[in-house]
Known about the structure:
- Chain A is an all-alpha fold and 336 residues long.
- In chain A, 72% of the residues lie in helices and 0% in strands.
- Chain A contains 13 helices and no strands.
- The two termini of chain A are 29 Å apart.
- Chain B has 14 helices and 14 strands.
- Chains in contact: A-B, A-C, B-C.
Amino acid sequence: MRGLLLVLVVTIVLVLLNFLLPALINPYLFQILILCGINVILAVSLNLVNGFTGQFSIGHAGFMAIGGYTSAALTYYLGPHVLGKAASIGLSPAIVGTSFFVLSVVVGGLASAVAGFLVGLPSLRLRGDYLAIVTLGFGEIIRVIILNVNAVGGARGFADIPRYTNLFWVSFFAFVTILVVRNITTSTHGRAFISVREDEIAAEALGINTTHYKVLAFAIGAFFAGVAGGLFGHYLMYLHTNSFTFMKSFEVVIMVVLGGMGSITGSVIAAGFLTILPEALRPVKEFRMVIYASLLIFLMIARPQGLLGMRELSLQTFRSLPFRPGKKRTEGAQSG
Amino acid sequence: MFLKRGEIMKRILFPVCLFVAILTICSFLSCAKKTEEIRIGEFGSLTGTTATFGISTKNGIDLAVEEINAAGGVQGKLLKVIVEDDQGRPEEAATAVRKLVEQDRVMAVLGEVASSRSLAGAPICQNAGVPMITPSSTNPKVTQVGDFIFRVCFIDPFQGMVAAIFASDSLGAKKAAILRDIKNDYSVGLAEFFATTLVSRGGKIVADESYSEGDIDFKAQLTAIRAKSPDVIFVPGYYTEVGLIARQARELGITVPLLGGDGWVSDRLIEIGGSALNGCYFTNHYWDGDPDPAVQSFVSTYKKRLGGNPDALAALAYDAAKLLVASIEKLASEDPGAFKTLVGVPDAKTGKLRKEALAKLRDILAATRDFPAVTGSINIDENRNAVKPAIFLTIENGKYKYVGKVLP
Amino acid sequence: MQEFLQQLVNGITWGSIYALIALGYTMVYGILRLINFAHGDVYMVGAFAAYFAARLVGAPGPVSLIGAVLVLLIAMGSCALLGVAIERGAYKPLRKSPRLTALITAIGVSLLLENLGIIVFGPDPKFFPQIVTSRQMELVSGVVVGRHQIIVLAVSVLLMLLLQLIVLKTKIGKAMRAVSFNKQAASLMGISTDNVITFTFAIGSALAAAAGVLVALSNPKIDPLMGIMPGIKAFVAAVLGGIGNIPGAMLGGLIMGIAEVMVVGYVSSTYRDAIAFALLIVILLVKPTGLLGTGMAEKV
């Protein structure tokens, strides 16, 4: 019941935000906000795989591409038919269009989840860096395949995707992602995920089906990455494989590690920070990426466990704030 | 250990965060002072794998703007180009254009080289009603985004077709091989239209190979091509790879000419390819040895300012900037009121007037006829594409030589 | 047949370059369990160091053999220094941190080198002077091999042998093997692990520089981002051969090179980049620790 209420309140707030914000801030900031939201989805979903389950995946951009291209192909090729049908029986095109968009984003997510399942399978045999390189390779293979599919534009990119994504849908899906990952990780299942990270052999000895949890983590992570891709395509109205190189995967991994492996709020903060940072550095022109890189190295050295480590930021944290360096922090770390 | 880390954190991390925060505030609230400049936006890849193209473009635009400002600007108002980097990524291009249009309130946008980035940026200009001129995006889709999007270069179909006609008529080629850059829409587009035209003229494509931008080893593809013994090899790529391709082709004993497009033009091509390029042909917009004074003055100023000859991207960027400024000048003389609303950073009150003024600017751009540009006289057609002749050049001992001209 | 032989020659020369870059990856990984993503960029810096060094010895004019060797040594030396600097500055503070943290730092260093390269060297490709003049010779009719390709192959084999010699026959090599086997136990035995790690970085980076010079010699185009793709591919090669294993890196590099070339020659060049990874996945599924890698017993 409380959960339902929460969802309701958040939905209303999001709707209000979506309509109020554009009037208040300029569209450039608005766009950054949307990109922040998409990156939050990516980072939090990858955190389930990398942070909570301890499987090292650097192929998130590949999952994002699958979701993005699948959902864009749906709205591009099927959308007009659906809208035409709807118009002929007198339904409002705005509502039908939006529902179809949400449906196709979810289908895109499912397509990614299937791919995530397939990529998760090798994790039965592979560990650590070997798994990482397989996920990296998978992402690259996806990209090369898309380059060769002419129906989605190939090297020329997929243009004329209708725009449906707005702040409401981005923050809605971000909210759902956070909720799902949080609920999973704080449940009994969550303990199982974490046990796989902490010690796979011990977990297995205790009767946890580690295979099941590893593949599950991959599939769920991939699902939300696909959703993020769908939102991304329907916002940009254009998709090109250059958006999904391994650099994009690295970026998401950076968000997860910088935020703290196994900290959802950490991922959210880091995703926001790393999306805004390059924009904030625009005044320094060509030194932008140099400063970005130096700052990254510096932050990792100063905070090797990530901004939040394994902790979560909550109201309690704020209560214990005015931090005294000597005082031991006692707020509940949910994981670990 | 923990305490020590904590100390480091507070000592260094805090100031760094503060610095970033201040930068953020500065950039987002960008001091919207009342200026009297004509603000033009430019987006391009100043970093990332295609930075060399972005910087060539920037050089071309800078040169044009410097010349105009030295001559007193437009009605005494100086031009200011605001450049934003897109790292060669579509989503970054969208953000950069959004910033230029919404935050800097520029009156027009120049950019990008790659069609993929132009396609990401164009819808934003179109929605905001800000004219955008791309100097060198050749995908026909770019200008189809809407009536505010223009270009000053050929489109893929034209250049690909011209190259195929040249191959079959002038070189008498029956069998052609293609080596294209699979990651580059320009290259893929040119290759497609080359193939269809050549086949329709009774030619045959015996091999269709590809590489990826940044590759340095093409021997495998070239060996496969060699086995098919074509009469000509069409390499519609950029100079960054073509020099090596030519070199490796000759090393493998392939002697047939290579054929290419305007992406070839650069001093780097000659430097890297060396004698391997002798007897190769490519289409271009202009010839640096053209006695036309406009071309000569452009080439010599470019040499003086930046050293070396301009590549096609710099020349097209120069023309795009010149065309834009000429249109702004026309607007200023035809409708001083509208021009005034566009100068400086317009405040919110002038929203509607500004929109009308921008629409006027667009109409002027769309009506461009016989604009005398370095890259051939520009006519903007009803699809907002530039219609202009292509010329053929060949390379002889490190020098370009004029071969012929093809009218559209 | 003639085409096949030619492709084989192409594949072997290309593979030996992957192998050379992969060696550095494998050595660092063997010691630190760190994927040094900046390795590909060290390779780039090596090529640029040689570019400037070549000017000192008289390029683009004719260069004597001693001059050419000097260029190679200067590049290797400066990259060894760079590697040590990177290790001391960026990785050493993270010795005790989670491995992923060090990995992110490595990505940061890689981005830093690339973007500094764009600012310092300029983004446009540079022509690498021909410090050894190129000549082609025909092995069999229709199978051409260049002098550069032979040099690439010879120098890489030489360097690999030298490396094996260092690792297997010298005292420091023994220390390296000990550290790679068990860092803690090695330090208890009185081995200065820090020195060993520094030495490893120096050698690995010098090898990357050598690869950079050899690549630039046979494919004379260098630019600040030239290290990205070869870096990733070489890493794949290292994993393919069994990461941490030196002969494995050589084998992996050769297999990758030949596989890529054969795919282009007989399947489709559009899938060149995908095939390297597909091959890797298949091999890893059959042998999860790479071709020559040995699985480590896991302690519970």
